[in-house]
Design a protein that fits this description.
Elements lengths: L1 E4 L1 H8 L6 H12 L4 E5 H15 L1 H14 L1 E3 L3 H9 L5 H13 L3 E3 L13 E2 L1 H15 L1
Parallel strand pairs: 1-2, 1-4, 2-3, 4-5
């Protein structure tokens, strides 16, 4: 299940942002256990480094980046992704870039807490809690 995680979901875990961190942590553990093929956008990596270095310090930020790079597939941002994002109907360019990177990398789902920003998505978009429920539903029908 190739799933791109929005920056806000990753930050929920790294910064332990309650009440969101529990669902986000569960999803990241599913990536770690290879139950989900997790993707993050290349721009997510730079944003996370910037925000986590401000909140936690440079050493912790570098540690988090190394962990993310070992855990996630990186959805590249190139000229085609940027051009498609600029031509999209997304209101926020950063969200458009994330969406286009997901599409070009082959992700099939996007998980975000900002679902309204992805109303023009070509991919199914879920909040962390809804995505967990969908995964549990799939697991129970297989068993």
């Amino acid at each position: 299940m190739k799933t791109l995680f929005d920056t806000n979901v990753i930050l929920d875990v790294l910064l332990d942002r309650e009440p969101f961190s529990n669902d986000a942590s569960l999803l990241l553990s599913k990536v770690e256990q290879s139950e989900i093929i997790g993707f993050i956008c290349a721009t997510t990596v730079t944003t996370i480094h910037y925000i986590s270095s401000k909140a936690l310090g440079a050493q912790a930020a570098s540690h988090h980046i190394r962990s993310l790079l070992s855990l996630f597939v990186i959805a590249p941002v190139n000229r085609v992704v940027l051009e498609n994002a600029a031509a999209s109907k997304f209101e926020d360019f950063e969200d458009a870039v994330l969406h286009e990177a997901a599409c070009h990398a082959g992700a099939k789902y996007i998980v975000t807490r900002n679902m309204a920003a992805f109303k023009n998505s070509k991919l199914p978009v879920s909040g962390p809690n809804e995505f967990i429920s969908a995964l549990e539903s799939l697991t129970s029908t297989k068993g």
